[in-house]
């Protein structure tokens, strides 16, 4: 009798262990990067063209991919962006892990993963990265690179997986980032920028109209936004002054006021 | 000859595919929570006692565990904290994925994972969460709960995996969080707090001395920090006033100045 009970107990434990085992998540991990550029007073995002590798009828997705065994997620994000854009050092910021159980369960997504990586990727979670990218030089380089293209934020297509949702979350994250460290804002502007470019960027980040006169007063108080002698070329009337961002002054100001600001 | 070449090509591709397959990371995913409390003018962190399940000679670790198939990481973090503390709704914030290839490769860590979960966990990446927890009520409840204990931040033991590193990173993250939304600071204070408690919390967050007179001026300018008529009981001389945080005023002020502050 005791033997029977012990056997039963052992049997139950084996079954339970088995159930428990399948419950723990064993998964593949990818990174996805949302690279923001700012041009003509609006945000653009860097996307990868899939062409022959279309996912269903979707031809654009965020730059990303599975991470390798020897990498951590930060290394993988830098590698993937380098492979796609040729830029080695991007100011990348990890901002969230997207891990909904059904984020990669659309039949089109599954078929694509089977082809692109290997069959039977049972579940895929992704760690997303955010990058702000200067317009003047990098924008042009990148858009000439391989199978990437810039796409206006307000004209984004429907993308595979949860990539639209990731972009939406990353746009909110920009505000947090800017509020914590205003310096990143200037990663989006050319080295020399006009007041109206700066104003348009603020409007884009906060996604609303901002009174230009109030904003002008604010900018005048930013010791680290320095007005240059130079004006816009080829403009006859009321050519706008150029400004530049002085990161040394910014650091001094920030260190001095870090507690007062918070 | 052509046949040979084709066979060779196919052979090379199979080998390459095989190499590629093993290179993609197939991993288990866990969450780890850093719960901060603030008492006697210093930070404490909630840790789990391992007792019989010691990892080498380490007896304390961050609350955390593997996520289940049906969960995303947010759900898993809430579940694990509920299981350990009985608190259902914690103000949890996901803050970083730790994924170094060797973060769970110490023989003690591997042996423990074999016992606690299942053998052959080839790699474990973790998504970390941060929570700030009010002292007065929750602190006592939690410390009486099962196998958890509060541990002073400056007396932390050496912990398994990269848990010490996670705590270090989360401490920096608190500052970012506070700078983005000062309201979270009051999650750490009792409902009624004295000026010196508030001052001590600021000093703890910024990990440096802050002149109390300047800080007092600052607090006087915070419309949302409201002085109460009530004073500390049982203090004969110079009993301190109590203050409270008014979140409605805070919201109004914040909405009004969101652009001016940034």
| Rg of chain A, alpha carbons | 24 Å
The CATH class of the largest domain in chain A is Alpha Beta
* Distance, first to last CA of chain A: 71 Å
Oligomer: homodimer
State mean pLDDT of chain A (0 to 100 scale): 84
Tell me what the CATH architecture of the largest domain in chain A is.
Answer: Alpha-Beta Complex
Structural class of chain A: alpha+beta
Number of distinct helices of chain A: 8
The tally of strands of chain A reads 10
CATH topology of the largest domain in chain A, which one?
A: Nucleoside Triphosphate Pyrophosphohydrolase
| Form type of chain A | elongated
Order of helices and strands of chain A: HEEEEHEHEHEHEHHEEH
CATH homologous superfamily classification of the largest domain in chain A: Nucleoside Triphosphate Pyrophosphohydrolase
Largest interface: A-B, 47 and 47 residues
**How helix-rich are the residues of chain A, as a percent range?**
40-55%
Percentage of residues in DSSP E strands of chain A: 15-25%
Parts with pLDDT < 50 across at least 5 consecutive residues of chain A: 257-262
Most strands sheet of chain A = 7 strands, mixed
Molecular structure report:
Two copies of one chain form a homodimer. Chain A contains eight helices and ten strands. Chain A has 262 residues and is α+β, with helices and mostly antiparallel strands. In chain A, strands 1, 2, 3, 4, 5, 6 and 7 form a seven-stranded mixed beta sheet that branches. A three-stranded antiparallel beta sheet of chain A has the order 8-10-9. In chain A, strand 1 and strand 2 form a beta hairpin. The model of chain A is unreliable at 257-262 (pLDDT under 50). Strand 1 of chain A pairs antiparallel with strand 1 of chain B.
């Amino acid at each position: 009798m005791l033997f029977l009970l012990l056997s039963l107990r052992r049997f139950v434990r084996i079954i339970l262990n088995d159930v428990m085992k399948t419950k723990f998540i064993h998964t593949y991990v990818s990174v996805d990067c949302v690279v923001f550029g700012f041009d003509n007073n609006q945000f653009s995002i860097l996307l990868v063209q899939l062409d022959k590798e279309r996912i269903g009828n979707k031809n654009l997705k965020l730059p990303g991919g599975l991470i390798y065994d020897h990498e951590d997620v930060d290394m993988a994000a830098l590698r993937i962006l380098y492979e796609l854009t040729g830029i080695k050092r991007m100011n990348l910021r990890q901002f969230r892990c997207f891990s909904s159980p059904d984020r990669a369960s659309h039949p089109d997504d599954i078929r694509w993963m089977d082809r692109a990586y290997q069959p039977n990727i049972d579940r895929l979670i992704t760690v997303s990265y955010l990058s702000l990218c200067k317009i003047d030089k990098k924008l042009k380089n990148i858009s000439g690179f391989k199978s990437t293209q810039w796409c206006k934020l307000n004209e984004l297509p429907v993308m595979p997986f949860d990539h639209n949702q990731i972009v939406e979350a990353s746009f909110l994250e920009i505000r947090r980032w800017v509020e914590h460290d205003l310096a990143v804002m200037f990663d989006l502007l050319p080295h020399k920028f006009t007041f109206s470019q700066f104003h348009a960027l603020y409007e884009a980040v906060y996604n609303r109209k901002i009174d230009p006169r109030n904003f002008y007063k604010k900018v005048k108080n930013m010791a680290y936004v320095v007005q240059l002698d130079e004006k816009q070329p080829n403009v006859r009337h009321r050519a706008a002054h150029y400004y530049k961002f002085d990161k040394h002054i910014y650091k001094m100001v920030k260190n001095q006021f870090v507690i007062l600001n918070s």
